[in-house]
């Protein structure tokens, strides 16, 4: 069995449009943090702490080290993640939209198919005809619940500004094509399913064309998509399993996931 990691990290050193911060308390600093937190629970303890008293000293610990602690401050749309209908709007298909912890887990462990769409350029969209042509090329027919991965190669730009500006979007016709064949989850190796913001905003300001049409289509038809995948070029066209279990965060429109492909 071979496992291929298809996920990007939450990385506070990478270029992002939203702020990401990871507070790291190392093993030595953990001793002081323990004292500050535990002694700070009472007025008497806080006073003693300020006067220099400590209930735990580094000499009390193996190797004079406490436990490390990392606190992540990040939107749920940083790193590889699954978007569900609440992200698109408050209602989907005439019902209250579902949040990420409601994603059925059985949908997240299914057969995968990888479609090569690396010929699509920034500001272009991947439409139904592109999906069909890619399927014909690999002689594959989509089955219900397959997880279809659209490979554009945009993950190679991760870490810099071009990751947010040089990738193709997904046309609504492509969404319909997949959903009509029983797909519940599809994935992209781009940072989003709509065209880059710079193109959408320009057209909105000059021509009043809609912003985020593909995302907003999730109000009409319910679907789940994975954003920020990586290493899709390392996959065969089909014959593998995808596991994309979302982290169980309450009442969010998206959730981080460690997405992997399993090749037998």
What's the structural blueprint in terms of helices and strands?
Blueprint: E1 2-5, E2 21-25, H1 27-39, H2 43-50, E3 69-73, E4 81-83, H3 85-88, E5 91-92, E6 95-96, E7 109-116, E8 125-126, H4 128-138, E9 147-151, E10 169-170, H5 172-179, E11 185-188, H6 197-207, H7 213-216, E12 224-227, E13 238-243, E14 254-256, E15 260-263
Nearest-integer average pLDDT:
96
Write the H/E string, N to C.
Answer: EEHHEEHEEEEHEEHEHHEEEE
CATH architecture of the largest domain: 3-Layer(bba) Sandwich
CATH fold topology of the largest domain: Glucose Oxidase, domain 1
Top-tier CATH class of the largest domain: Alpha Beta
> Looking at this structure, what is the CATH superfamily of the largest domain?
Putative cyclase
Q: What proportion of the residues form beta strands (DSSP E)?
A: 15-25%
The separation of the N and C termini measures: 5 Å
Low-confidence stretches: none
How much helicity do the residues have? 10-25%
Number of strands: 15
Shape: elongated
Question: In the residues, how many domains can be counted?
Answer: 2
Helical stretch tally: 7
Rounded Rg = 23 Å
Main sheet: strands, sense, barrel: 9 strands, mixed
Enumerate the strands of the largest sheet in spatial order, edge to edge or round the barrel: 1-15-13-7-9-11-12-4-14
């Amino acid at each position: 069995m071979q496992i291929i990691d298809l996920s990007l990290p939450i990385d506070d050193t990478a270029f992002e449009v939203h702020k990401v911060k990871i507070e790291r308390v190392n093993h030595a600093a953990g001793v002081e943090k323990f004292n500050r937190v535990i002694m700070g629970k009472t007025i008497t303890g806080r006073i003693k702490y300020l006067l220099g008293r400590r209930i735990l000293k580094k000499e009390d610990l193996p190797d004079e080290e406490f436990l490390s602690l990392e606190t992540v401050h990040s939107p749920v749309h940083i790193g590889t993640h699954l978007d569900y209908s609440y992200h698109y709007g408050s209602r989907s298909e005439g019902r209250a939209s579902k949040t990420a912890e409601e994603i059925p887990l059985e949908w997240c462990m299914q057969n995968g198919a990888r479609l090569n769409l690396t010929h699509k350029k920034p500001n272009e969209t991947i439409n139904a005809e592109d999906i069909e042509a890619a399927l014909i090329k690999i002689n594959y027919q989509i089955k219900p619940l397959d997880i279809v991965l659209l490979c554009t190669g945009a993950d190679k730009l991760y870490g810099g500004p071009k990751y947010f500006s040089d990738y193709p979007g997904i046309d609504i016709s492509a969404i319909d094509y997949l959903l009509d064949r029983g797909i519940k989850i599809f994935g992209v190796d781009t940072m989003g399913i709509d065209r880059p913001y710079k193109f959408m905003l320009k057209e909105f300001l000059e021509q009043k064309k809609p912003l985020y049409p593909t995302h907003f289509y999730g109000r009409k038809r319910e679907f789940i998509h994975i954003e920020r995948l990586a290493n899709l070029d390392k996959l065969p066209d089909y014959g593998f399993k995808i596991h994309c279990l979302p982290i169980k965060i309450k009442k969010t429109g998206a959730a981080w996931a460690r997405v992997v492909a399993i090749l037998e």
